[in-house]
From TrEMBL:
<feature type="domain" description="TonB-dependent receptor plug">
    <location>
        <begin position="62"/>
        <end position="173"/>
    </location>
</feature>
<dbReference type="InterPro" id="IPR011276">
    <property type="entry name" value="TonB_haem/Hb_rcpt"/>
</dbReference>
<dbReference type="Pfam" id="PF00593">
    <property type="entry name" value="TonB_dep_Rec_b-barrel"/>
</dbReference>
<keyword id="KW-0798">TonB box</keyword>
<keyword id="KW-0998">Cell outer membrane</keyword>
<feature type="domain" description="TonB-dependent receptor-like beta-barrel">
    <location>
        <begin position="292"/>
        <end position="717"/>
    </location>
</feature>
<dbReference type="InterPro" id="IPR000531">
    <property type="entry name" value="Beta-barrel_TonB"/>
</dbReference>
<dbReference type="InterPro" id="IPR036942">
    <property type="entry name" value="Beta-barrel_TonB_sf"/>
</dbReference>
<keyword id="KW-0813">Transport</keyword>
<dbReference type="Pfam" id="PF07715">
    <property type="entry name" value="Plug"/>
</dbReference>
<comment type="similarity">
    <text>Belongs to the TonB-dependent receptor family.</text>
</comment>
<keyword id="KW-0675">Receptor</keyword>
<keyword id="KW-0812">Transmembrane</keyword>
<keyword id="KW-0472">Membrane</keyword>
<dbReference type="InterPro" id="IPR010949">
    <property type="entry name" value="TonB_Hb/transfer/lactofer_rcpt"/>
</dbReference>
<keyword id="KW-0732">Signal</keyword>
<dbReference type="InterPro" id="IPR039426">
    <property type="entry name" value="TonB-dep_rcpt-like"/>
</dbReference>
Length: 758
C-alpha cells in the first residue's frame, strides 16, 4: 500500500507537469475562490446532495473520493432535455457519440473511455450491450434507458469502478435512479401529475402522466410516457439523394414507456419494493444518405424499420434490524430482456451480377435484410452494511455478492431479387443467409466485494477489494456456420480488483482526496466467438478464445469545497489501460486466419494512457444570481504506437448564470464551448477536423400557480453552425467528404412544456 501512495504522488506530479496550463489556472482559482466568480457546473452536487452509485450506499457527494456529479430531475425539466445526450450536454468530460444517419446516440464516453467499458445502471440493473452497426448501418443494438422524465437523478462516476461493480465498469459508471412513490407524494396520501411538451428540433410531442398513492405501510406509483417525432434537424439544406445530401435523413419515431412500483413496509425493520417497467419503440427511416464519400454508391434507396422492446422486473428487499451483527441487508432479484428487430430494404442499381453495394454492373436488384438481437439477464445482488468501532476507530463496512446470467442471441436474414428476371437468392455477395455471426449462448458472472471506511480523526481511509469470475458457454445454434471447421468455444477467467482511497477534511466543507483504483473487463461473447466471412470480397472476421481481460490502473488526486456561497472541485488523474481488445487485420498468410481471406481478429494489443484534469465551481454572487462553470482537458495515446487516441474529446468548458428572483419564476443562460480537435490518429481514417465553437442556450420557467408550471428553452440561441467531435468520429466523417454539413448540430430550436402536479 505504501508503494501505491508513492505512485499516487508520482503520477499526480507528472499529470500536473503535463497539464501546466490547467494547473496554473486551477491554482489561481483555488487561491482566490471567494473572488473568482467562476463556478462549478450547475449539475455538480452540493454538500447535502446524496449519491448512491459511487459507494453502493448513500453518501454525501462532497465526502466521496473521486469525481462524481449529479443531474437532478429539476435540471432535466428546466433545460427541457429529451434524451441522454441532452441530459449530459453540460458535463464537459462526458459525451454521447451519435450517428445521425439512422440510430442516433447509443453509448457514453467518459474521459475517453466508451461503449461497453462504461457500466450503465438503471436502479442497479445494467443496460444491454452496445453493438456497433456494420457498413450499411442496420445491424446495431443500442443501450436503452427509460424516458428521462422518469429519472429522479442521474449520477456520473468517473474512472474504474471494478472494485465495487466488476467487469464493464473499467471506464466509469452511469447510474439512473428512477422516481419512487415518496418523490411524488411528498407527505400526501395521493398525488397525480403529468406533462405535455413540444420540441421544434425534431417536431416531437411528448406526454407523461404519473399517479402515486399510499401511506406508511403501502405505497404505489404508476408512470406512463409517450413520444412521437421526426428526424433531428441540422444546419444542412441540400435534400438530394446520396453523398451530396446535407439535410438529415427523413424518419419518424414513436416510443412508449410504462413504469410501476409497489412498496410494502410492514414495520421499521423490513421493506419490499417491486418494480415493473415496459418500453417499446419503432423508427421508420428513409436513409437517403447511407455512407460517406463514394462508398456504397450502388445503393440508390435504403429504408428501414427499427423496433426495440425492453422489459424489466426487479424485487428489492431491505432488512434493518434494531440490534444485530449488521445494520442493513439489501437484496435485489431482477430480470431484464431487450429485443431489437431491425428491418432493412435496399434498391441497388447498375450493380454486379451478385448485387454488390459498391461494384458497378448492369443488374438492378432489391435487397431485404433483417437483424434480430435479444439479450436477457437474470441477477441477484446481496449487500450488507455495518458501522462499528475497532481499536477506537469508527468503521463503516460494506460487503456483498453479485450473481448474473447474461443470455445473448443474434441472427441475420437476407434475400435479394433480380428485378429483371424475378429470380431470388439468399446468397448476397458471398454471404449465405440466414446466419449468426456468433452462436446463442450465455455468460455467468460471480462477484464478491468488500469495502471499509476507516475514520482516523480528520482522515478517512477506504480500502476495497472485489473478486470476479466469469464463464462464457456457447449453445447449439444451426445458424452459426464456419468454413474453417472450428467450433465455438467456452471461456472462463477470474480477476481481483483492489482500491485504496483517502479523504482528508481540512474543514467541514473542504476535503482533499487521493485514490488508487484497478479495473478490469472480461471479453464478451461476441469478441470470443464471432465468425463472419464474405467469399465475394474475400475477407473474414474471427473471435479469439485466448483473449485476456482488459485491465486498468488509475490514480487521481483532487480537492472539493462545497459551501453555501461558493465552491470548487478540482481533479488530476492518470489512467493506464492494458490488453485493450482491438479489431485488427492479421498479416497476410497468417496461420490464425481463414485460408485465402483477409482476416480481422479480436486481439489484446494496446497499452493506453489517458491523463487529464477537470475543474468545476460555483458562486452565489447575489441572493438571486448563481454563477457556475466547468472545464475538462484530457490527453490520451497508445503506448505501443505513440499515436493519439481518437476517443479523446477536445478541450471543453461550460459556463452558466441562473437568475431566480422568486420561487415563482427564474431563468438560466448556459454557454457550451470547445476547442478545435487536434492530435488525431489518421492512419486508418482521415477524419474531418472539427473547429472550435461556443453555443448559447437559454431556459426559463414560471410557476403559473402552485400546481402548474411552464418551462421554455431556446437552444443554440444565436444559430451557431458547429460539429461535435464524438459524432464525426462515430460516423467516420472524412476530411474529403463532399458534404460534411450533414453532420452539423441543430440550429436555433425551441422546447416548451407544461407540467401539472396535483
Amino acid at each position: 500500500m505504501a508503494k501505491q501512495h508513492k505512485n499516487i504522488g508520482r503520477i499526480a506530479a507528472a499529470a500536473a507537469q503535463e497539464q501546466f496550463r490547467l494547473q496554473r489556472m486551477a491554482l489561481a482559482v483555488m487561491c482566490a475562490w471567494p473572488l473568482a466568480g467562476m463556478a462549478q457546473q450547475a449539475s455538480e452536487p452540493q454538500l447535502g446532495t446524496v449519491v448512491v452509485t459511487a459507494t453502493r450506499s448513500e453518501a454525501h457527494a462532497n465526502d466521496v473520493a473521486g469525481t462524481v456529479t449529479v443531474v437532478t430531475q429539476k435540471q432535466i425539466e428546466q433545460r427541457q432535455a429529451r434524451n441522454l445526450a441532452e441530459v449530459l450536454a453540460d458535463e464537459p468530460d462526458v459525451s454521447v457519440p451519435s450517428d445521425p444517419r439512422r440510430f442516433g446516440g447509443s453509448h457514453v464516453n467518459i474521459r475517453g473511455i466508451e461503449e461497453n467499458r462504461i457500466l450503465m445502471l438503471t436502479d442497479g440493473v445494467r443496460a444491454a450491450d452496445f453493438r456497433s452497426p456494420g457498413t450499411t448501418n442496420y445491424d446495431a443494438n443500442n443501450r436503452d434507458i427509460p424516458f428521462v422524465e422518469f429519472f429522479k437523478q442521474v449520477e456520473v462516476l468517473r474512472g474504474p469502478a471494478s472494485s465495487l461493480y466488476g467487469s464493464d465498469a473499467i471506464g466509469g459508471v452511469l447510474g439512473f435512479l428512477t422516481l419512487d412513490p415518496s418523490d411524488l407524494l411528498k407527505g400526501r396520501e395521493f398525488a397525480a401529475g403529468g406533462s405535455l411538451g413540444y420540441h421544434s428540433v425534431d417536431k416531437s410531442k411528448r406526454a407523461t402522466a404519473s399517479f402515486a398513492a399510499g401511506g406508511e405501510r403501502f405505497q404505489g406509483l404508476f408512470m406512463v410516457g409517450h413520444a412521437r417525432g421526426e428526424e433531428t434537424d441540422n444546419q444542412g439544406s441540400s435534400r438530394v439523394q446520396g453523398v451530396q445530401r446535407t439535410a438529415p435523413n427523413p424518419l419518424t419515431y414513436e416510443q412508449s414507456n410504462v413504469l410501476g412500483k409497489l412498496l410494502f413496509t410492514p414495520n421499521r425493520e423490513h421493506r419490499f419494493k417491486l418494480t415493473l417497467e415496459h418500453k417499446e419503440g419503432e423508427t421508420a427511416v428513409d436513409a437517403q444518405r447511407v455512407g460517406n464519400g463514394t462508398s456504397l454508391s450502388r445503393i440508390t434507396t435504403n429504408t428501414g424499420v427499427d423496433s426495440l422492446e425492453r422489459n424489466r422486473v426487479v424485487l428489492d428487499y431491505d432488512y434493518m434490524p434494531e440490534a444485530s451483527w449488521f445494520d442493513r441487508l439489501s437484496a435485489k432479484l431482477y430480470t431484464q430482456t431487450q429485443t431489437t428487430d431491425n428491418q432493412n430494404y435496399q434498391l441497388r442499381t447498375n450493380t454486379s451480377s451478385s448485387c454488390s453495394a459498391t461494384t458497378a454492373g448492369t443488374t438492378n436488384c432489391s435487397v431485404n435484410q433483417r437483424f434480430a438481437y435479444e439479450q436477457s439477464q437474470t441477477g441477484l445482488n446481496l449487500q450488507q452494511e455495518k458501522a462499528f468501532t475497532l481499536a477506537g476507530l469508527p468503521n463503516q463496512a460494506i460487503w456483498g455478492a453479485d450473481l448474473l446470467r447474461l443470455q445473448t442471441e443474434e441472427s441475420k436474414t437476407g434475400v435479394w431479387t433480380n428485378l429483371a428476371t424475378g429470380a431470388t437468392s439468399t446468397v448476397l455477395v458471398g454471404d449465405s443467409y440466414p446466419k449468426a455471426e456468433y452462436p446463442r449462448g450465455h455468460t455467468d458472472q460471480l462477484g464478491l466485494f468488500a469495502q471499509d471506511e476507516i475514520t482516523l480523526g480528520k482522515f478517512k481511509l477506504t480500502p476495497g477489494l472485489r473478486y470476479d469470475s466469469f464463464k462464457l458457454e456457447p449453445e447449439s445454434d444451426p445458424l452459426y456456420k464456419r468454413t474453417d471447421g472450428r467450433e465455438a468455444v467456452s471461456k472462463e477467467g477470474s480477476h481481483l480488483s483492489p482500491k485504496l482511497a483517502g479523504v482528508y477534511g481540512l474543514s467541514q466543507d473542504w476535503n482533499l482526496y487521493a485514490q488508487y483504483l484497478e479495473g478490469f473487463r472480461g471479453p464478451n461473447y461476441e469478441e470470443t466467438n464471432r465468425y463472419f466471412y464474405n467469399s465475394s470480397q474475400r475477407y473474414a472476421v474471427i473471435g479469439n478464445p485466448d483473449l485476456k481481460p482488459e485491465t486498468s490502473r488509475s490514480f487521481e488526486v483532487g480537492s472539493k469545497y462545497a459551501g453555501s456561497a461558493w465552491g470548487s472541485q478540482f481533479a488530476l488523474y492518470e489512467n493506464h489501460y492494458s490488453n485493450f481488445i482491438e479489431y485488427t487485420l492479421l498479416p497476410s498468410g497468417s496461420a490464425e486466419g481463414v485460408t485465402g481471406y483477409s482476416t480481422y481478429k479480436y486481439q489484446n494489443l494496446s497499452k493506453v494512457v489517458i491523463r487529464g484534469g477537470d475543474w468545476r465551481g460555483y458562486w452565489q454572487a447575489l441572493p438571486a444570481l448563481r454563477l457556475s462553470a466547468g472545464l475538462a482537458i484530457t490527453h490520451g495515446y497508445d503506448k505501443s504506437s505513440g499515436k493519439p487516441l481518437n476517443s479523446i474529446e477536445p478541450k471543453r468548458g461550460t459556463f452558466a448564470a441562473m437568475w431566480t428572483p422568486s420561487e415563482q419564476w427564474g431563468a438560466e443562460w448556459r454557454l457550451r464551448a470547445a476547442t478545435g480537435k487536434d492530435h488525431i490518429d489518421t492512419s486508418s481514417t482521415n477524419y474531418y477536423r472539427t473547429p472550435g465553437y461556443g453555443v448559447n442556450d437559454l431556459s426559463a420557467w414560471w410557476q403559473v400557480q402552485p400546481r402548474v408550471k411552464l418551462n421554455l428553452a431556446i437552444n443554440n440561441l444565436f444559430d451557431k453552425t458547429y460539429y461535435l467531435w464524438s459524432d464525426v468520429r462515430r460516423s467516420g466523417l472524412t476530411a474529403t467528404d463532399p458534404a460534411p454539413e450533414f453532420y452539423t448540430q441543430p440550429g436555433r430550436n425551441v422546447a416548451l412544456s407544461v407540467k401539472f402536479d396535483y
